[in-house]
Amino acid sequence: MYQIIEYLKFLWLSKNHHGVHSPFVFQLVTKCFYDRTKYPDYHNLKQYRASLLNDKSTIEISDFGSGSRVFTSNKRRVRQIAKTSGTPLKRAKLLYRMVNYLNVESILELGSSLGIGSYSMALAARQANIISVEGCPEISRFASDNLKRHNIDNVNLINGIFLEVLPTLSHNKWDLVFIDGHHHKDATLSYFNQLLPSAHNDSVFIFDDIHWSKGMSEAWETIKNHHEVTVSIDTFYWGFVFFRKEQAKEHFTIRLKML
């Protein structure tokens, strides 16, 4: 019920590109969010996700996040995880377009799951350095092996607890950070605060499921109001924050055309 109410609020407040007066955000929305180009890699993305949806093998889950609203058992089929927890194809395409449009070179992902997001980003930036962290050992092992089977060699998949892994990473600055795991208010704010020093002027942080719960909505409000965040975009499922010092602080609520 909470998400339904939040979505109705989102629809009331949201705009398309015609209501955007920031040149940077207008270009982002029109040339990236609403980009209708049929990239050849979309076929690979579709095939990757389809292979997961057809995979009947079983994985034992160690859940360090917010838990599942669908499953009660820790043993789950890959196809079930892909259907309920994996990045949907339309959002994987958007992630591909973001990486491609922003021309990023260094990427951090928290929450690999089955590797759909990792795969989409790796396709968009073959030369990028991508580090993906996954808490569940079995899922981490499966995703790592699966990415290799699909000829992806620029993703370093690390198994570990996010807050324990982050201090060990040697990378100083990230072009893009995709936080797609552990959907709790306090945890999300901890990741944001720990990663904030690694943001530069052109970095983007993407937060998944910002309206998952009341706590996640509160975390999103805190993040977008942070003094170092200048541009924030709420697309309901994902929240984007930028740190462009040349930009006046402004928040946008944008309806996506999920292409």
Record the SSE blueprint.
Blueprint: H1 2-13, H2 23-33, H3 41-53, E1 58-60, E2 75-77, H4 78-84, H5 89-102, E3 106-110, H6 116-124, E4 129-134, H7 137-149, E5 155-159, H8 162-165, E6 174-179, H9 185-195, E7 199-208, H10 214-224, E8 231-234, E9 238-242, E10 250-253
Helix pairs in contact: 2-5, 3-6, 5-6, 9-10
Structure notes:
With 259 residues, the protein is of the alpha/beta class. It has a single domain, classed as 3-Layer(aba) Sandwich (Rossmann fold), CATH 3.40.50. It has an eight-stranded mixed β-sheet, sandwiched between helices. Helix 2 packs across helix 5. The longest helix is centred in the middle third of the chain and has 14 residues. It is globular and about 50 Å long. About 2% of the residues have low confidence.
Notable traits:
single chain, 259 residues, alpha/beta, Rossmann fold, 8-stranded mixed β-sheet, two-stranded antiparallel ribbon, 10 strands, 41% helix, globular
Outline:
By secondary structure, this protein is an alpha/beta fold.
Q: Major sheet: size, sense and barrel closure?
A: 8 strands, mixed
Structural class: alpha/beta
**N/C terminus separation:** 27 Å
Task: Write the element-wise H/E pattern from the N-terminal end onward.
Answer: HHHEEHHEHEHEHEHEHEEE
Overall geometric form: globular
Q: What is the tally of beta strands? A: 10
Helix content, binned percent: 40-55%
CATH C-level name: Alpha Beta
Strand order within the widest beta sheet: 5-4-3-6-7-9-8-10
Instruction: Quickly count the helices.
Output: 10
CATH topology: Rossmann fold
Question: Unreliable stretches, pLDDT < 50, 5 or more residues?
Answer: 66-71
What CATH architecture label applies?
Answer: 3-Layer(aba) Sandwich
Q: How large a portion of the residues is in β-strands, by DSSP E?
A: 15-25%
Number of domains: 1
The CATH homology group name: Vaccinia Virus protein VP39
Mean pLDDT: 91
Radius of gyration based on Cα positions = 17 Å
